[in-house]
Design a protein that fits this description.
4-stranded antiparallel beta sheet; rod-shaped
């Protein structure tokens, strides 16, 4: 039932009530009318309030419906957002998986890149090694080419020197030396060394004796003089001047003597033994030398000190000891073998016989007998304390080199009897009756001789100066030869003597147009 119907019903009821009341009295009716009017008013108010409440209820319902719609929308939006969030989560998971895969791929790529870098570095090192090997091969080829050129130039220098063109010979010899040293070659190679000595005038020869020069000895250190003796009884002392002249002074000339060996004491006293059984004692500052007869020592031929006071004199079948303080014969001993050569070992005299034995002599009455480690007749011996090597020179020209471990090398380079050996560290020097003095470098795989000098006469003996820069050689014809061994000094001397440079045509002809031209005089 609607509000209007209610109002109409109420109004009708009121009118009925009023009509009934009219029958009861006007006053009562009037009062009741007023009450009814008040009730009507109250009802109207109530109706208004009800209408307001209904309006409010309707509005609340509308609000509720709106809120429900909003709630539905929010719910649907929440569902949509949840769906989107889930989709985003799924997308994030997929992206995370992709990221993990990308990370794994990055790690794999890094490992591959590291491997590639290592391979690239390895290839770079291989390329660098190949480049170095190629450069080394080129340098080796260039070195061999230039060393061959140097030796060829040295041979041409010898030819030009013999033909009389000394200027061109000097240029060729210096070029030979220059390319040899520049490319690490052996300057003592004969084709290089000999032209250098010839053109630099580093080899000189003086005829100083009438007989064969059998012995050469240096004065003590600090005294650059040299003593020589001959088979004709000549005893001389020499000194080389700054201008390469030789000043000689005769200490004794007596052809009854046949000198075979010399010893110079630390005090500068000269002892020369003669094969006729005499020992000549000379002091360069004194006048006439003294002569000591070696009684019962026939054919003495060698001298070797036992100590600072005693000098051992060795004959073919006898020994004698000379007191160098008193210059008297202190002892004599007959030996039961034939002495053939005398040298030194362990700072003591070493005597070789003709039956393959050697004897270390401590005194006239004390000697140690050993077996020679090589076969043949020993004519010369040398040893090196620094390297432990020893060398044996034989009567047939063979030299045996014995290493510290006992290994024996057979050196072939002489054609006749070895007259003297000398070991200076790793370098062995030998002289022979074939007229040559050779040098052997013993620390190479192959030991070949380098001829330092050739005299054309039997070389009886040789010695170095106190600085080991000059080689002195005595031969059978009485000549004393000097050879400068300092190759650098020879080259400096030769360069200072050059009068001109190669012409362009000479350079092209002798050295080659592919070799850059250079001046040797500047």
């Amino acid at each position: 039932m609607g509000r209007r119907d209610i109002v109409a019903g109420v109004a009708g009821l009121l009118m009925a009530t009023v009509a009934a009341a009219g029958l009861a009295g006007w006053y009562g009716e009037h009062r009741r009318a007023a009450e009814l009017a008040a009730q009507v008013t109250a009802l109207r108010e109530e109706a208004k309030r009800s209408a307001v409440v209904q309006n409010i209820s309707r509005q609340m319902e509308e609000i509720a419906r709106e809120q429900k719609d909003i709630s539905d929308e929010q719910r649907e939006e929440a569902i949509e957002q949840r769906r989107r969030a889930e989709a985003m989560r799924l997308r994030s998971e997929v992206e995370r998986q992709h990221a993990l895969a990308a990370q794994q791929q990055a790690v794999t790529s890094e490992a591959l890149a590291q491997d590639a870098r290592q391979m690239a570095e390895h290839q770079r090192l291989q390329a660098e090694h190949q480049r170095i090997q190629a450069e080394l091969s080129k340098r080796v080829a260039d070195t061999l080419s230039y060393l061959a050129l140097a030796r060829s130039l040295g041979s041409l220098a010898t030819i030009q020197q013999q033909s009389g063109d000394t200027e061109l010979a000097a240029l060729l010899a210096y070029a030979s030396y220059l390319y040899t040293t520049r490319y690490g070659g052996n300057v003592y190679y004969p084709a290089v060394f000999q032209p250098l000595t010839q053109t630099s005038q580093s080899q000189k020869t003086w005829a100083v004796h009438t007989g064969a020069v059998t012995c050469i000895a240096n004065m003590p250190k600090g005294d650059d003089r040299l003593v020589t003796a001959s088979t004709y009884g000549e005893l001389k002392i020499h000194q080389k001047t700054a201008s390469d002249r030789l000043e000689s002074r005769t200490l004794l000339s007596d052809n009854s003597h046949d000198f075979r060996d010399i010893y110079v004491s630390q005090a500068g006293i000269i002892y020369a033994v003669s094969r006729n059984g005499h020992l000549v004692i000379a002091a360069p500052s004194d006048g006439t030398p003294k002569t000591l007869a070696l009684e019962q020592v026939p054919h003495p031929f060698a001298l070797s000190p036992l100590n600072d006071r005693q000098l051992l004199v060795v004959g073919e079948n006898d020994m004698a000891v000379v007191d160098m303080e008193k210059n008297t014969l202190a002892a004599r001993r007959h030996i039961d073998y034939k002495a053939c050569a005398v040298s030194r070992t362990r700072n003591k005299p070493l005597v070789f016989d003709n039956h393959g034995r050697m004897y270390i002599v401590t005194s006239a009455d004390d000697q140690e007998t050993l077996t020679v480690p090589v076969t043949g007749q020993v004519t010369a011996f040398a040893e090196s304390k620094g390297t432990g090597m020893s060398a044996y020179g034989m009567s047939d020209g063979i030299v045996y080199l014995v290493a510290a471990d006992g290994q024996v090398s057979r050196l072939v380079g002489h054609r006749s009897r070895i007259s003297r050996l000398k070991l200076n560290g790793r370098r062995l020097y030998s002289s022979s009756y074939d007229g040559t003095v050779n040098q052997w470098v013993t620390d190479g795989e192959k030991i070949d001789p380098v001829t330092l000098t050739t005299t054309g006469q039997w070389v009886m003996n040789f010695a170095f100066d106190n600085y080991k820069e000059t080689l002195w050689v005595g031969d059978w014809a009485g000549n004393l030869s000097m050879t400068l061994l300092n190759v650098k000094a020879m080259a400096i001397r030769l360069k200072s003597q050059l009068k001109r440079d190669f012409t362009k045509d000479e350079w092209t002809y002798y050295i080659g147009k592919n070799v850059p031209y250079e001046s040797f005089t500047k």
